[in-house]
Amino acid sequence: MRLRLEVWRQAGPEARGAFEAYDVDGCDPHMSVLEMLDHLNEQLAADGEAPVAFESDCREGICGACGLTVDGRAHGWHDHLPACEQRVGERPDGTVIRLEPLRSRLYPVLRDLVVDRGVLDDITLAGGFASVDTGLAPDADATPVGHRIAEEALDLGACIGCGACVAACPNGSAALYAGARIGHLALMPVPALERGRRARAIARVVDEEFGPCSGYGECARVCPKEVPLAAVALVGRERWGAALHRSRT
């Protein structure tokens, strides 16, 4: 395949960025978006030009590092797939593909396609963990968890923190990400002991740093792990639950 790539190039956070066009020959239709960038960088290196900076790690759809915008959409053309699993063969030969960073005022560009998504860490640090002292590790089956509850918790806990939901939301909301963090821990017996504190702390960060959720649903459509849209409601539900039920710490 022959493709024409329009790639956002930006030397640093304070530099002005712009799109640059590259013609790339010999692309295999089975290449992922990241492999296409590898192919481009080999060409740039051979020509003595600076390679395009982009993030990746596992390339198996489980790490969340590869977030970028493809043709104006977070991750790429298909719903529920990370960039590392979007195949260029889905585009016609000779097509133009535009690549740019995840776009959000909360994600400053560090270089080319690499952004700082550290604002998501503020949510995790506020309460996306369990700190209950349980003593020695209990047996795996010591505290029974129903199948339905376990499946719901796994669906929410599947979030890989790629940040595409924030970039896809017109309001820059992190409600899907925050709801997933709050929800899967609230469903589990031991983490639920901190349910109220966690909800209040995470909701505070969401209010202070992100935009409001208006129910557009773009976040759920681009989520590579299909975290359900219902997760956005968990932020408010858990916050009000903590206020109304004193039994929740």
Automatic annotation (TrEMBL):
Domain of life per record: Bacteria
Q: Which PROSITE patterns match?
A: 2FE2S_FER_1, 4FE4S_FER_1, 4FE4S_FER_2
Q: What cofactor requirement does the entry state? A: [2Fe-2S] cluster; [3Fe-4S] cluster
Q: Which SUPFAM superfamilies match?
A: 2Fe-2S ferredoxin-like (SSF54292), alpha-helical ferredoxin (SSF46548)
Instruction: Report the residue ranges that make up the 4Fe-4S ferredoxin-type domain in this protein.
Output: 150-179
Q: Which UniProt keywords apply?
A: Iron, Iron-sulfur, Metal-binding
Give a Pfam family name.
Fer2_3
Q: Which InterPro entries does this one have?
A: 2Fe-2S_ferredoxin-like_sf (IPR036010), 2Fe2S_fd_BS (IPR006058), 4Fe4S_Fe-S-bd (IPR017896), 4Fe4S_Fe_S_CS (IPR017900), Beta-grasp_dom_sf (IPR012675), Helical_ferredxn (IPR009051), SDH/FRD_Iron-Sulfur (IPR050573), Succ_DH/fum_Rdtase_N (IPR025192)
Could you say which protein family the record assigns here? Belongs to the succinate dehydrogenase/fumarate reductase iron-sulfur protein family.
* PANTHER family the UniProt entry points to: SUCCINATE DEHYDROGENASE, SUCCINATE DEHYDROGENASE IRON-SULFUR PROTEIN
Name the record gives this protein: Succinate dehydrogenase/fumarate reductase iron-sulfur subunit
Biological source species: Schaalia naturae
